[in-house]
Design goal:
Elements (H helix, E strand, L loop, with lengths): L1 H16 L1 H6 L22 E6 L2 E4 L7 E6 L2 E10 L4 E10 L15 E4 L6 E4 L2 E3 L6 E12 L2 E17 L2 E14 L10
Antiparallel strand pairs: 1-2, 1-11, 2-4, 3-4, 4-5, 5-7, 6-9, 7-8, 9-10, 10-11
Length: about 190
């Protein structure tokens, strides 16, 4: 009996020490309609996915899936993952004007916000190229919520969707069915102007 109590106590201490690591992991929960994409969630699973032409652009456990930088009045929201058919690390960055972000808690102002990506004040970069999104292209922050762990503020969970229609050499291309669910804290590089 004493051995069981020791084992249970050891497991409890191990799990409690891993709490932070667990919250930073990327968790892929398949969408019931398209299991190649993550389901839309609002739990801070640090995952994203979108269909790019006939390929999938997805988060991975091999890299930090999101970085946020605030500079010169613009918020740069980057999703970093892999194009599944190419296996290459790829970044999709949305840049748009917003009030000053000084700490990760300031990201709560994004709650229920729709960014028109065709607006000239916005910029979208994908695979190192600057895109020219067409009308109807959007980035939507459906929910921004503060997560508390053991009564202390821990991170802001940003959940939402995106769709981008653009042209490459006059040919239409699409990044569609995009969704993200990110837990953002100071470790995800919320940087501000010096």
């Amino acid at each position: 009996m004493r051995n069981y109590i020791s084992i249970i106590a050891s497991i409890f201490f191990l799990l409690s020490s891993c709490k932070r690591d667990t919250l930073d992991r990327t968790v892929f929960v398949p969408d019931p309609d398209d299991p190649n994409l993550p389901a839309y969630t609002e739990w801070g699973y640090n995952s994203f996915g979108a269909e790019y032409e006939r390929a999938y652009f997805q988060s991975s456990t091999l890299t930090v899936p999101c970085k946020i930088v605030y500079q010169a009045g613009l918020l740069h929201f980057s999703l970093i993952g892999y194009l599944r058919n190419e296996g290459t690390k790829t970044e999709l960055t949305f840049s748009f004007p917003i009030s000053a972000i000084n700490v990760y808690q300031d990201l709560l102002i994004l709650h229920n916000t729709v960014i028109d990506l065709s607006d000239t004040v916005c910029e979208v970069q994908f695979k190192g190229d600057t895109l020219s999104p067409l009308q109807g292209s959007h980035l939507t922050f459906k929910r921004a919520q503060l997560l508390r762990v053991d009564g202390a503020e821990n991170r802001v969970i940003l959940s939402g969707t995106f769709d981008i229609d653009f042209r490459v050499n006059g040919r239409p291309e699409f990044i569609s069915d995009g969704r993200f669910d990110m837990g953002i804290n100071r470790d995800f590089a919320v940087a501000t102007d010096p």
